């Protein structure tokens, strides 16, 4: 009961305050609204205000539409085909900017007069600043898709040689030497080789392959041709290990001219060489042209099977077109209040 009485007294007090207030003039103007145009006016109002709005068409007859909106689009009042609105009172629900819009769709101009007044809802809002100010802002209003050409660099893995060759013994009626070539792809950045004798040498490579597949990330493991030699060429972990004990082979990595000297039994130069059960290495120079693997078996009676693998890593550049979204930025002015 006490609560109801308190609320009733508060309402009576507020009503008394409002009724006892003299309307505060906010704006008054006589404007020419040209044919088929719209005239707009903005002002700020406080929550609880009583807006008093008057309008009269002084020349040109009725106007098509008169609207009052809480900016930007919440309608508070509208009247159509009117020539006069006298002291229309509207309770303001929220503090904010209010838009007064006058639309003239006729083929002739109109002269109109209107006024805006407010009765503050409480004493605190008596000095409310109704002026609307403007500031510049940027706004993303949409985007458009354009085609853009970009240069893509692919890393390619090429297995240049992967074979097992039999080399006869020193005392055999057949030659105990063999050579064969490989050609590096253009834009090779590094390559690597593996040489292994008999089952021991072949097993060492297979063990490295299995270890690499177990440890490599799924992204790497699906790259075509990726294996221990590709990892070695890319300066990564290849899991290749050297072994000792067993039949060995002499080998040389050289160019075409020196490979011919090797076959002729003359002195020659090489890039890499060894006398091993197995061996592997990364080569970063030279990286263009044709090269040879030269092999020799010094075992007098026993032929050997030699596994030879060569893998190159090269780069390929290509142009592709892809859609690119470009956002459209609009510079505009927006209204605001300083209260």
Description of the molecule:
By secondary structure, the chain is an alpha+beta fold. It has 5 helices and 16 strands. Strand 4 (63-70) and strand 5 form a beta hairpin. The radius of gyration is 46 Å and the shape is rod-shaped. It starts with a helix and ends with a strand. The relative contact order is 0.19.
From the structure above, extract its key features.
rod-shaped, single chain, 339 residues, 16 strands, alpha+beta
Shape: rod-shaped
End-to-end separation: 38 Å
Describe the main β-sheet briefly. 4 strands, antiparallel
What Rg is obtained from the alpha carbons, in whole angstroms? 46 Å
Put simply, the count of helices is 5
Class derived from helix and strand content = alpha+beta
Low-pLDDT segments: 5-19
Helix content estimate: 10-25%
Lateral strand order in the biggest sheet:
1-8-3-6
Give the strand tally.
16
Strand content: over 45%
Overall average residue pLDDT: 89
| SSE order, one letter for each helix or strand | HEEEEEEEEEEEHHHEHEEEE
What is the secondary structure topology, with strand pairs?
Blueprint lengths: L1 H18 L4 E10 L3 E9 L4 E10 L3 E8 L3 E9 L1 E8 L4 E9 L5 E10 L13 E35 L9 E7 L4 E10 H18 L2 H4 L6 H6 L15 E7 H8 L8 E5 L1 E6 L6 E7 L7 E33 L3
Antiparallel strand pairs: 1-8, 2-7, 3-6, 3-8, 4-5, 4-7, 9-16, 10-15, 11-14, 11-16, 12-13, 12-15
Offer a concise description of the structure.
The chain is of the alpha+beta class and 339 residues long.
């Amino acid at each position: 009961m006490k609560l109801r009485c308190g609320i009733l007294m508060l309402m009576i007090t507020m009503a008394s305050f409002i009724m006892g207030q003299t309307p505060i003039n906010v704006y008054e103007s006589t404007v020419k609204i040209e044919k088929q145009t719209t005239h707009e006016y903005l002002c700020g109002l406080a929550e609880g205000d009583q807006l008093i709005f008057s309008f009269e068409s002084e020349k040109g007859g009725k106007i098509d539409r008169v609207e009052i909106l809480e900016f930007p689009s919440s309608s508070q009042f509208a009247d159509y085909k009117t020539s006069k609105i006298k002291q229309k009172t509207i309770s303001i629900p929220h503090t904010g900017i209010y838009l007064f819009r006058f639309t003239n769709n006729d083929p002739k101009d109109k002269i109109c007069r209107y006024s805006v007044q407010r009765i503050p809802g409480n004493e605190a809002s008596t000095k409310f600043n109704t002026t609307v100010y403007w500031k510049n802002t940027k706004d993303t209003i949409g985007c458009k898709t354009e085609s853009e050409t970009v240069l893509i660099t692919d890393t390619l893995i090429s297995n240049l040689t992967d074979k097992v060759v039999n080399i006869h013994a020193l005392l055999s009626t057949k030659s105990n030497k063999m050579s064969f070539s490989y050609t590096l792809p253009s834009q090779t950045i590094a390559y690597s080789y593996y040489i292994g004798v008999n089952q021991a040498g072949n097993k060492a490579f297979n063990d490295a392959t299995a270890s690499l597949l177990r440890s490599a990330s799924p992204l790497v493991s699906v790259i075509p041709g990726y294996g221990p030699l590709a990892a070695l060429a890319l300066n990564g972990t290849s899991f290749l290990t050297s072994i000792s004990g067993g039949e060995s082979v002499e080998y040389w990595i050289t160019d075409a001219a020196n490979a011919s000297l090797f076959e002729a039994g003359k002195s020659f130069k090489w890039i890499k060489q060894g006398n091993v059960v197995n061996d592997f290495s990364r080569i970063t120079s030279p990286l263009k042209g044709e090269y040879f693997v030269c092999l020799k078996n010094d075992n007098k009676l026993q032929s050997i099977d030699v596994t030879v693998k060569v893998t190159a890593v090269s780069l390929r550049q290509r142009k592709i077109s892809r859609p690119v979204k470009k956002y459209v930025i609009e510079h505009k002015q927006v209204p605001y209040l300083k209260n």
